Each structure stands twice: as C-alpha cells, then as structure tokens.
Amino acid sequence: MLLAAAIAASGGYAYAQLGGTSSGGAKPPDLFKTDPEGFTRARFPPAEWPDRDVTICRVQYNSVRSERDGSGWKTDYPYSEINLLIRLGEMTTTSISWDAEQKRPNTWVVRLTDSRIYECPFLIASDVGTIGIKDEEITMLREYLLKGGFLWVDDFWGTEAWTQWAGEIGKVLPPEEYPIEDVSAADPIMREMFDLEKVPQITNVTFWLKNNGKTSERDEDSAQVHARAIRDAHRRIMVLMTHNTDVGDSLERERENSDYSRLFSPPGYALGINVLLYSMTQ
Amino acid sequence: MFERLFQALFSYRPVVFQQGDFRFDITTASFVAAGIAAAIMAAAILTYRSVQNGRTRDRVVLTALRMAALALVVFCLFRPTLVVKAAVPQQNVVAVLLDDSRSMQIADWNSQPRAEFLRQQFAAGTSPLLKALSDRFLVRVFRFSATAGRVSSVKDLSFGGSQTKIGTALDGVREELAGLPVAGVVLVTDGADTTEGSIANTLLNLKADKLPVFTVGVGSAKLPRDIQIDRVSTPRTVLKGASLLVDAIITQTGYAGQTVTLDVEDDGRIVGSQKVQLPIDGSPATVRVRATASEPGPRVFSFRVAPQQGEVVTQNNARESLVEVRDTREKILYFEGEPRSEMKFVRRAVVDDKNLQIVTLQRTADNKFLRLDVDTPDQLLGGFPKTRDELFAFRGLILGSVEAAAFSADQLQMIADFVDRRGGGLLMLGGARSFAEGGYGGTPVADALPLLIDPHARASEPTTFARLKVLPTRAGQAHAVTQIAGNEAASAARWPDLPQVTAINAPLALKPAATVLLNGTDERGRSIPALVWQPYGRGKSIAFLPQDSWEWQMHASIPLEDQTHENFWRQMLRWLVADVPSPLEANATTDRVEPGEAITVEATLVDPTFVELNDARVMAHVTRPGGSTLDVPLQWTGERDGQYRGTFVSTVPGAYEVSVDAERAGKPIGTIDPKTGKVIEYVTYVRAGAGDAEYFDPTMHETPLRRIAEDTGGRFYTTENIAGLPEDISYAGRGVTSVEERELWNMPIILLMLVGLVCAEWGYRRTVGLS
C-alpha cells in the first residue's frame, strides 16, 4: 500500500519525472517508441565507471531459440531498470548512479565475456528461456556469482523456457552442488523493505489488454508463478528466478496504461526494490 | 695483581689506608733526631754551594736529592702511624649469601659452572677463604634464590632456584641478624636479579643499619657464544583465530651474520615461523613473526630459536608468553545510512568469523531500518541506540555513509563517549554522507575521529571522485591490520597488485595523534590517507576512506579463491574490538609465580554506562591445578575508582584459573550473555612454576653488584681478587671493633724510596763528573 501510494503521489511515471515532460497536463511524447535519446541502444560501460553509486547491468546474451513475444536479451530493456532505479532512489536512501547530461540513471549492458561484469554487483536478464550460455561465458558467470555478484532473471514463461534456462544455468552452477530451490514467503528477500506474501503473476501490458486481464501468457503451462533461487554455501541467494511472470514489464511500462499500472506496478516495484536491497545487504 | 703489589709495597691492604686515620707518634727523641737531620741538611747545602766546578743546575738537583732523602728519614723519625678500627676476632658475625639459582649452573667460570666456584671457595674444611673468614668472624651461611634461608654449608645448595631476588635476600638476612654485631655481609652471586622492582629501599635499610655488603661477582661479563630472545610482545587476550603479529627482540654474541629461524609454538605445535639474519654482537634484531591463535583458553605461546652449535646457554633461546584466547563473539554495530554494496561485502567478508557478530542497522528509508543479526526481535527496533547502556553493550561501532543529522545531539555525544569513556572502537567508512560531507564538523564525533573536519563545514554533496591505488605506509607495513599475505614481504608485494578503489570524501588533514596505515595515490599522483587511526580516550577511532573496497573481492584480477578482502576486513574488525574493556575486567599482577608465592588479583568494575563502581561485592573464584576451589573477596583499593584487589597464595605448580564476578545491591554486574541471559564471568590465568627467567641476561652483572657494595660501604670483588675479602671486612669498622695502630715507617716503599734517592744522587754526580 505504501508503494502504491508513493507511485500515485509521484504524479505519473518514473521516467516521465526525469525529463519533466508530464507537467502541464500535456501528453508526454512516447519516448519508448521514438527514443530520441537513443536509450534503447545497448549502452556498454565506459572505460572508467563514472561513479560508484548503485547501478544495474543487463546481460547481453546469445539467444539459441525464440519465445513468443520475446526479444531475447533486449526484453524489457532499458526502461525496467531505469524506472526501477528511479523508484529505488525515491523510495529509499540509496544513491543512484546518475547521468546528469542525459538526465537518467546509469544502466549498462554487459556481455558474459566482459570482465566489467565483476564491477557491477547486480545483473538482470530477461527472456532467459532463449539463452544459450557459451563455454567461454560459463567460468566468468560462475566466478561472478560465487564472488558475491547477484543475478535476477525474469520474464520467461512455460516449461520449455524453464527447461532451457535450467539447463543453461546448470552448466554454470551444477544442480548437484547448487540446486534450484523455491523461495518461500518467509525468505528475507520477501521482507527487505516491503512484506510480500508471494511473487505476483505480471504479464506484459499488451497481452493483458488483449486478453481481458489474463495474466498467464502460456495458459496452463504458465499458470503457476515460480520464485526460485540458487544459493551459495551460506544460503544466500546468488541467482533469483521469477518464472511465469514479467516483473520487468510492470516497471518498464508503468506509464502505458493506468489500470495496468495500478494493478501491477506496486507489487512489481515492491519486489524489485526488495531484490535490489537484498543484493546490497546479504 | 694491583692489590698484591700494593700490599707488598705498603705492608697493608688498601682498605687499611681507606679506613684508618693517619697521625705521627712524636716523642722527644723525634725532635732530637730531626735537629740532627736539619744540621746534616744545612751541612749538605753548604758543601754543595762550595763546589766550584759544577753548574748551578747540578748543584740544585744534587741538593734537592739529598734534602729529599733526609726529609724521608725525618718523616720516619716522626713515626707515621695509621689508627684503624679492626673487628675483634670471633666477636662479629659475617653473613655469607650464596646464590642458589639455576643461572649458577652456567659454565662460564674457567669453563666450569659458576656453582663450582662457590663449592671451592666455601667448602667447609678445605677452603682457605672460608677458613680466613672463620678465623676472624662467626660465619653464617645463607642460600638465596627467590627466598633466602640459612644453610650449614655449601653442600646444601642445589643451584635449582628459578628466580634470583637479591633485594629479598638482603632484607631477610638483615632482619635475621638484627641485634647481632655484624661486620659485613658477603653476597656471592652472578648478579642476575629476576625481579623487576628496585632494590633502592633495601639499600637504604642497609645503610641505615650500617651494614656493608661485600659483593662477589661470579661468572663472565660476556658470554662467548649465545643467542637470546630478549623480549616478545603479545597481547594478553586475543580472539580465537586471531592472527598475531608479534615482535620478538633477539640478541646474540658469536653468531653475527648467521641466519636462524624463529618458531612460534602453541602446545608443541608450530603456528608461526620467521627466518632472521643475526646482527652484530650485542645489537638487537627485531623479528616480526605471525602466528595464529587457533585454540581457545589459556595458551602458552613459545617463541624459540633452535640451539646453535657451541652455545653456552640454550635455555634463553626460548621465551614463553601466556595469551588468553577468547572464544567469544564480539558484537559490532554497523549503522549504514544508505543501501550500498560496501556493506554487503564487509558483512560477507567476516561471515565465517564465529568470533565477530556484525549487528547491522541499515537505513533503507527515512525512519525505516533493516536489522540484521540482531540478538532479540526488538533490538534496535527504533533505530540507532538512544541510551548509553544500549550502545555501550557493543564493543565496536561502524558508521557507514550516514550523515550527522541522522543522530540527535545526545546520540552524537554518546558515540564520542563510546570511544572515549567506554573504550570502544569506532570505524567511519568513506561515503557520500560521512566525514565532512556528512556534516560531522563541530560534532563530538569529529573530536573522536583521527581526521580534522572544519567545525564550520556543513553537510554537502561530494565534489571529489578519486581513484586510488592503495599502499601501506611504513607504519602500515608493521601493523597487523594491513598484513594481507602470509608474511610481511608477501604482504608488501600484494598491495600493489590490488585493484584501484575510489574515495569521494574531500581529503582531510591528520590530527596530531593520527597514524596513517594506508595511503591512496590518485591518478594525478596526490597522496590521500586511506586508513588512519588514533587513540581517543580509552578507545580508538579509525577512518577508512575508500567507498568500494569490495573491488578487492569482485574485481576481475582477483581470483575466486583469493582471501585478501576477507582477511583485510576480518583483521580490521578484530582490531576494532581488540583491547576493548568489559564492564568487569580482572588480571593477575603477574602471569607466573613460584609455588608458594602470593598471587594478587586486580579487577576494575564499571556499570553499563561505564561509570566506575566502588561499592560492589567482587569475588574471585580460584580453581587450583588439582581442581579444588577457593573464593577470594576483592576489596576496593581506595587508590582508584572502580579498582578492586585481593590476594591468595599459590600452593602447587600449575595453572590457576581465576574467574571474577561482581554484584551490587543483589544484582550481578557485567556483560550479559545473550544466549543464557547470565553475566559472563571474567576469567584470567596465572601459572605457578619454575620459569626460565634465570637464563635470560645470564652474564655476570657487575654494575648492580658494584652499586650495592658502594652504596653500603662494602666492596666489589671478582673471582680473581676475592682473597683479600676477610681482611677487608675486618677493617670495615663495623661490629665489635678494637682500635689498632699500624706503623708506616717500616713499609718497604720507604726503604725503596730512600735507596732510590741515594742512588739517584750518586748516579747524577757520576754523570756530571762530580764524584
């Protein structure tokens, strides 16, 4: 409720606040489609990190299969992380890495062969039911996670996508040693800032509008949301998987439909902020 | 040699001349003889004046020689005499104190043990020295080491005493002989006193009683070949698993340039080792050796250099140190004002350290806190502690990126008191809201910090972003907290390999007492202190400026298995809580005593706000080596607030465990164990048993023995010139004495001088042709 009120009180959408385009009652330009700043292009980290404030890095992976409505690594990029960082900055005392010139939070795209991932302690990846992790990427991702990095994968639906993901991450963290476990409502990640009883099923706004409020994008095959994790030896989550839900879309497209936003953005941000805080505390 | 020559020429020992009063025994005949001599002198002068063929100078010389010879005759005719007070034979007591300690077994007296000298010189019936003494005095023989006691002969000595207490021995003998006519005390020892106190009072008492002490130094002033561990500095208590960085001082003679290994043993197990090249003779070498305290409880760490070929004393190659290894969980409060990765990685670095509990208070939003590793569900529920008892329950405090405005004025004062009065460790981390940027200028916290913050500076956004290459300073190289590899050299080599970190706080000047352990160098070559500390009141405060030390864990150049980041933070946080006092603390005044000796226990007691308490009931529960127990009440000393003291006597050899508890108005005082809810008793340990102190500095100590002799009116002897001792005591003028006159005219030196003058005159005359 706190989060919903905060989002409502913020008077619009996360990104809209940045450019100040929502003021005066004029309809903001559709930046996502036209993207005058070129935000949707892959933005790789510069040679030197501009600061050491909190940022999010998105994994640019190679898709080896395709999923309906999916865009591979670009899915939900870049506004889900931009909006999540903005809300994190608003809702918490976190210092967000900020690009003053472009008036946006810094978010970056990294490849799993790029050693810069080690300097970005929080990675996200979407549509990972299409991922193919190459041999040369396995060691780096494994070391990244075991050293203390955090990976949140989201927006992959159905059994086939799960099987693909589970097989690929199993090459990085073999399930015999690092089994995939369900995350219960009692897990600290569900309590970091907002108390969540479950991970909600969130669909993308287009699907939701077309299907009269239906949320399972793969019908029966994706009816059940899975919040799963791979933990390290100290039971800390290294990889969080939100399967059969598209939390990223509730962040990315909070502004596209007010009903959708009212319904999905608060729980989406609540989970997103909890996950980010967890990645900075545990 | 000199004394023998002196005695041959002057008939008497020097002491007779020192003690005696000189006078002439003049009679009428003396004046008659003097008159005749004067007439002869006048005749001689006239005779030489009448010589015509001599030069004036020759006449003067010849006249002077003749006058000198006649003057010497006149001197003798006036009967020069020394009046001395000599001890009346068999009327006075002489106490002979023989050193019965283990150092007397060192074989540096003519390649024989020092004890052999005692056996030869003081053997009843065969020793000329003892016979000479016995002829003049009533000889009382005493042995001494830690204590003194009467013995019938040197045969009763075992030379097994583990301590030498010269002052105690002299005091004991002085008291035992009180009221008797004592001509002197003979102290036969190597002078290697093992007590740390001064003997000034003993000397004052001896002077007051007019008791001269004649000291005999046995042994060599320098051992030909020896290695000694002079000193090791270990903390009295450490946390289990702590990596100790111990400085050992080694001195040697005869092995300069040789490389030896210093091993550290814990119960026979080597837990540390360091090679050292020995310096020139007599010059100390400082060796820094690292050891791990892995076993809890009272641990005796032994620092040892293997005996080398030809060493005279091997027992001083090892030194022991009692360290109490505490297996407790030290509580540190980490207050972080903003979510950031630094906190996560600091917590992860020490997660496996079972002796550190990082109670974390993470401010996620205004007045909203995430609490981690708290003891109870309601601990820190309202945020940062609002009372001193609540804050002072922690031993360390980390302030992350949190601004001064997050605290009330009283909380800021409490933080300063936490360091100053409670003796806790404060660590402030670099960040957007810490130091000057956090608005700490002019606050009590700024007073505690080792960096100077402008008191007028207000909280501001950071304007600096420095990428730092961090390297230890000279002080840092020697400090345990910055040792990030197995030894000092490896650590020094490792630092340059670590990735850059960043700092966003504007550089601040150092306070006078601050020590920089790590320096960061930015891309423009400017040096910025990265890790600084200073003592503040009873505690210490530390400033760590980098905001992303997690790079030392995550960076691509750091291998997965690398433990640098973990070790650094583990050491840092253990250091933060090291030596932080508890509300109740107790210590024995020494960690080793002789069996039978008294053990003094001192305790300090404060309430939960660290105000000293003088009206508590403090009890020491002693567990003896056999398991029997004894309760010793400790009384407020009246010397210092909160200080209590009590004494008990050790009985059998072994380790004595002393646990101390306290209560006031029926309520226990001290640190409460969160699991049991009971007060944790403070435990300390004392060993009763023979130590190796006797073998340290085992050379003959001439200076203190000379001082004892000179201060009391006695004399210092070596084994070479001891033969004159009985006569010297006789003329010391103490005890029952009689006045004796010693005529000097018949000294051989007089005759020699007379003959010499006559011959000189004759020779001179022949030389100048006047014969």
In short:
The complex is a heterodimer of chains A (282) and B (771). Chain A has 282 residues and is of the alpha/beta class.
From the structure above, extract its key features.
heterodimer; A: 282 residues; alpha/beta; Rossmann fold; two-stranded antiparallel ribbon; 9 helices; 16% strand; globular; B: 771 residues; alpha+beta; Immunoglobulin-like; 5 domains; 19 helices; 25% helix
Largest pleated sheet of chain A:
7 strands, mixed
Secondary-structure element order of chain A, N to C: HHHEEHEEEEEHEHEHEEHH
**Helix/strand class of chain B:** alpha+beta
Fold-level CATH name of the largest domain in chain B: Rossmann fold
Strand order of the largest sheet of chain B: 18-17-16-19-20-27-26-25-22-23
Instruction: Provide the β-strand percentage band of chain B.
Output: 25-35%
CATH class of chain A: Alpha Beta
What report would you give on this structure?
- By secondary structure, chain A is of the alpha/beta class.
- Chain A is built from nine helices and eleven strands.
- Chain A has one domain: Rossmann fold (3-Layer(aba) Sandwich).
- In chain A, strand 10 and strand 11 form a beta hairpin.
- In chain B, the strands form seven sheets. A ten-stranded mixed beta sheet of chain B has the order 18-17-16-19-20-27-26-25-22-23, with helices on both faces. In chain B, strands 28, 29, 30, 31, 32, 33, 34, 35 and 36 form a nine-stranded mixed beta sheet that branches.
- Chain B folds into five domains: 2-86 and 741-768, no CATH class; 89-221 and 699-735, 3-Layer(aba) Sandwich (Rossmann fold); 226-326, Immunoglobulins (Immunoglobulin-like, Sandwich); 330-577, Class I glutamine amidotransferase (GATase) domain (Rossmann fold); 584-692, Immunoglobulin-like, CATH 2.60.40.1930.
- Chain B has 771 residues and is an alpha+beta fold.
- In chain B, helix 3 runs antiparallel to helix 4 (56-77).
- Helices cover 25% and strands 32% of the residues of chain B.
- Chain B has 19 helices and 38 strands.
- Classes of the chains: A alpha/beta (282), B alpha+beta (771).
- The A-B interface holds A 48, 51-54, 91-95, 115-116, 118-119, 121, 143-144, 146-149, 192-193, 234, 236, 276-277, 279-282 and B 337-341, 343-345, 347-348, 351, 360, 362-366, 368, 370, 372, 401, 432, 465, 467, 502, 504, 547-548, 550-551, 553-556, 558, 560.
